[in-house]
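Protein modeling request. Please complete all fields; requests missing the sequence field cannot be processed.
Requester role: graduate student
Desired output: 3D structure, token encoding
Chains: 1
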Amino acid sequence: MTNGIQLFAGRASRDLAEKIATSYGISLGNVKVLEFSDGEFQPSFEDSVRGQDVFIIQSTMPPSDNLFELLLMVDAAKRASARKIIAVIPYFGFARQDRKDKPRVAIGAKLVANMMMAAGVNRLMTMDLHADQIQGFFEVPVDHLFASTIFFSELEKLNNGNLIMAAPDAGGAKRANSYAKKLDTGLAICHKQRKKANEVAEMTVIGDVAGKDVILIDDMCDTAGTLTKAADLFMEKGALSVRAFCTHAVLSGPAYERIENSKLTELIVTDTIPLKQHSDKIRVVTVADLFATAIHCTVNNQSISSQNVIS
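Delivered output (311 residues):
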């Protein structure tokens, strides 16, 4: 406990939370999780949180137990008389369900926001939401951090004057364009058509990548189908190399196999989601310092945007 501040971690983000706590300069609070034989679980704070500002760090990638564990921890902190409860969600799960894109489907991101509000969250801190408008689903402040803060330093090391930014689909054009403006490079876009979710049927390139070192920019990499198809297509169009920068390493299904077999030189991701397995083509950069900075600013009522880590 330091100056009325405590940091706790859910089981899904324990490693990242340890790094955040170290960067902030305090130790993680003690949480125990009682597991019943039928799979039910009950987290409990082993340290008093009465009158404290409690930061609970947990990404909400599948399984949904990760989300529910966070909700239970928020509820426990509220019932233990915490002064404020800040949910730190490096990867906000269900963010792809931000609208009704076809009849008779749920808006999952809004439902998650409703549950977080009902549980008692006073503030939310997250990174690179799949859809920016999700911030508006909450009735409390949302600190939306950008991984570009750490990616830019990595890109500057690679910038030999021959880079071109690229988006793997039209939806990522805005994000890739912001990188292109910052680094004063060109922009290419892949246009893709899907027959069903997680499966790309056809892809074409808009822009000239011949003789260029291509940098693919995206917020997440799930099955890596789009990313690897785009990389292979860029190489066919005459690119010298293709690297990808993706904030959230979801990497499900055949993702690792596809990355290994693709023409990607390297995939750079953050540790918002822990890797399931090792790959020589995947490099991880940590977001711990960014979150520690944002927490420090929140605690001290300082501007987070002035630190260039937030929208």
